Amino acid sequence: MAVRKPGLIALFDLDDTLTAPRKAATPSMLEFIKELRKVVTIGVVSGSDLSKISGQLGKTVMNDYDYVFSENGLVAHKDGKLIGTQSLKSFLGDEKLKEFINFTLHYIADLDIPIKRGTFIELRSGMLNVSPIGRNCSQEERDEFEKYDKVHNIRSKMVSVLREKFAHLNLTFSIGGQISLDVFPQGWDKTYCLRYLDEFSEIHFFGDKTYKGGNDHEIYESERTVGHTVTSPDDTLKQCKALFLA
């Protein structure tokens, strides 16, 4: 019978790490996670909110993972129980929030990109998610925007403008997924979840956007983690099998 390695946790990003972007996890990934959990403690940390995580990893996600950190860990669950929350609205206050949202919506309105849909800013518990194309786009439109963005750098240019304009708010801007960027106070990146993992001496983190400016960069670089860059869910399986199940 498999025995769990004490003091060790495998922590996973969601999109392009456990699943294709915004897609449900494959049956083979779900089965693999069950097997992996027999030998190591496992957790997921994503910029997405809990409803999006459960939409991708299944309604039983709270039972399938030891830790579920939504919104970078600003909403934290352990063994299915809420262990911590943080509120952007309380932290910034309505005036500063309004200032940021007004400017950002004007910026998006003036952007000349092939298409726009709806829901350009989503206020989550611990962050703002900003999408130049709008979150209501179809999967096909997401894929097209991602290609367009790689050529025209729409999101990275937007980050540069917002970073300069709102330097006084000490915000972090993090490009994630296919169509958006996350905005949150400095220190509220994915390393935020590490405050709940003091009992672990070995924290392995797996993510795809580990480059500077990507939303996995800070936790990948953290001195508290052993960072692993993955290129796809299949690559995640391959690396984990070699590390933990060999």
Automatic annotation (TrEMBL):
Annotated EC: 5.4.2.8
Source organism superkingdom: Eukaryota
Pathway stated in the Swiss-Prot or TrEMBL entry: Nucleotide-sugar biosynthesis; GDP-alpha-D-mannose biosynthesis; alpha-D-mannose 1-phosphate from D-fructose 6-phosphate: step 2/2
Keyword set, alphabetical order: Cytoplasm, Isomerase, Magnesium, Metal-binding
Residues that coordinate or bind Mg(2+): D13, D15, D208, Y220, T225
Localization terms from the record: Cytoplasm
InterPro entries in alphabetical order: HAD-like_sf, HAD-SF_hydro_IIB, HAD_sf, PMM, PMM_cap
A Gene Ontology cellular-component term: cytosol
Any Pfam family matching the protein: PMM
Gene Ontology biological process terms, A to Z: GDP-mannose biosynthetic process; mannose metabolic process; protein N-linked glycosylation
Catalytic residues in the record: D13, D15
Positions that bind alpha-D-mannose 1-phosphate: R22, R124, R135, R142, S180, D182
SUBUNIT field: Homodimer.
Name of protein: Phosphomannomutase
Species, as recorded: Populus euphratica
Source species taxonomy: Eukaryota, Viridiplantae, Streptophyta, Embryophyta, Tracheophyta
Protein's gene: LOC105118960
